[in-house]
Amino acid sequence: MPNYLKFRLLYIISIFSLLLTTNCDRKTKEQNIAGKQNTDNDFISFAIKTDIVPRSGKEKIFIKLDSITNGLSVKDKALYRDYMKYALSKKDSSDYYLSKIDTVGRSVDVRDLIELYTFKEGFKSDAIGPKITEAIFRKISSEEKRKSPLLFKYYDLMAQAFYINKNIVKSTEYFKLSFDNNPEKNTDSEKIKYYEVLFLYAMESSNIKEMEVNQKKAERIARKEKNEYELSRTMDYKAIIYGLKKMPDSGVYYSKKSFHYLESTNRLNPVAFINLAINYKENREFDNAIKYSDEGIKWSVKHKDSSGMAEFYAVLSDAYKGKGDYKNSLKNIDTFYKLKLKNINDIQKDKVYEIEQKFKSENKDLTISSLKTKNKLNNRIILQQKWLMFIVGATFLLGGFVLYNFLKRKNLQSRAEKLLVENDKLKLEQKTFQLKISPHFIFNTVSNLQGLISEKETTKSISYLTKFARLMRNILEYEKEDFISVEDEVKLLEDYMQLQQMRFKTSFEYSITINDNVRPYFQLVPPMLLQPFVENSIIHGFGNIDYIGKINIIFENKADYMEIIIQDNGRGAVLPTDVNKQSLSTSITRQRLNVLFPGTNSSVKTEVSDNGFRVEINIPILTED
């Protein structure tokens, strides 16, 4: 496909999001589930409509969530809130918030909706593998049999997979199936979206006839609705068609109509400038092509939008070449390639910068100490040189002075080397204590997974393995650190306890309370500090009990230390083996705290009773500030 068509393809894709926004704003206003019976069908309707709302709209929904869920149970409110947290999450935390959505006891539709988003999280590569497509096909088959309300979304997911894999024919087929099963297919906004996507598919295949058919249908609906914004887009589609027909003068005419409407409604964007400049260039109106390319660059700089910057210079290069100005043409094509290369380099720079900052942070204290030592040494050398210039004859005093400084420097160097050795020793001891925890935890977790597999719980095994893989990745990453944030420690604990809940079929509950005076994102704790005690509660405290076990974890800042309390309602230490396990956890934790916080009031206190097991850990307050 020619480059200028790719630019217009970008424009059409951006249009879809705007079109969906228009449709969704209308639908969102119609939402009002307050006072309705608590059913999973209400949630499915809410989720489908919210899914296509832009981020700003989702934020407004989240603010009004309490009024939307008024009258629902605590459990149902949690479902809506966890779902909205996922909908608003960024890419690096979407997996975490998706796993937080509780589908236990929910309908098949709710579980299938969460699985749909799980599939979407996997669409992050340039090609979709056979395992994913086979899994989607199986879901489509089951959704068809039970006539699921989510069937049209799975058809659309399959269309996306084929599109990513460059199979336009199959992608078109499943997109049509998605539209046919869409409950909103008779609305004008959904019809316009349908014809615009078909226009996109036809353009991918360079099928001008089909492009014309779908453009006219979209234009007819836009005129009927008297929607000038949608009508302006159809004018740009006409410009694309005339460009393919080698009728650039007509392409310029319709592209200008679209551009002027966007300009009059303050909706200009880089692609609008690019499209108009390309049409002028194709019509050999090189001066106008240069004019709108330059204006597009100025607009992008003013609005801090660099998305189409490289393309502007490509158009400028072609326009100057058409005028015979090869010097400027070469200059602009050179800029084009530099910007393209910069986009690639920026990604690498971000990774290098992240590593560099980590290295600098770890060596900050050492660097400052080294600089201070060098400054002191330089000052002393200058002082010595001054004395040597004025006291040439005082050989004895000079010799004594030199000897004094020599011995002092040697003493300082010896003390510095000793401190470095002690510091390395403390770090090695700290890592050793961490490694005492990890093999034991890994063994128990793998044993849990083997149990599920032996019971032929395939779905649970896959979910368990997914959570386990994420947890192990975080453990391996955090084992390199002396300290992590309270927030990261809580995430590790939640992942671990969720794995154990799956193993014991939710035979226990947990709560984690972070007091308001604790800053979870900035305050630091040693990694895997609480896991050994939580494991003792689950494995030994809740063994052979006839009631629901509960674990309560509380983080609270006192005057000059942070207090962490772990309280369970288990059977306490009944067997000698239980006492040994708890003693080992307590002993290892105390040794870790002695290594990490020497000379402080850090402590580990345990209390065993018939009502359960209580652990109180006190550590100094550390922050990243």
**Largest sheet entry:** 5 strands, mixed
N→C terminal distance: 52 Å
Count of beta strands: 8
**Low-confidence sequence ranges:** 13-37, 350-355
Mean pLDDT: 80
Shape: flat
Strand order of the largest sheet: 2-4-5-7-6
Structural classification: alpha+beta
What is the count of DSSP helices, taking H or I runs of 4+ residues?
24
Overall radius of gyration: 33 Å
**Beta strand %:** 5-15%
User: Can you give the helix content as a percent range?
Assistant: over 70%
Protein model, in words:
By secondary structure, the chain is an alpha+beta fold. It contains 24 helices and 8 strands. The chain has helices spanning 3-30, 40-51, 55-63, 65-68, 74-88, 91-100, 108-121, 130-145, 151-164, 168-180, 188-204, 208-225, 228-244, 248-264, 270-282, 286-302, 309-323, 326-362, 364-390, 395-454, 458-478, 486-503, 531-541, 576-596; strands spanning 484-485, 508-514, 523-525, 549-557, 561-568, 603-609, 612-620, 622-623. The protein has a 5-stranded mixed beta sheet, covered by helices on one side. A hairpin with a 3-residue loop joins strand 4 (549-557) and strand 5 (561-568). Helix 21 runs antiparallel to helix 22 (486-503).
Concise overview:
This protein has helices spanning 3-30, 40-51, 55-63, 65-68, 74-88, 91-100, 108-121, 130-145, 151-164, 168-180, 188-204, 208-225, 228-244, 248-264, 270-282, 286-302, 309-323, 326-362, 364-390, 395-454, 458-478, 486-503, 531-541, 576-596; strands at 484-485, 508-514, 523-525, 549-557, 561-568, 603-609, 612-620, 622-623. It is an alpha+beta fold.
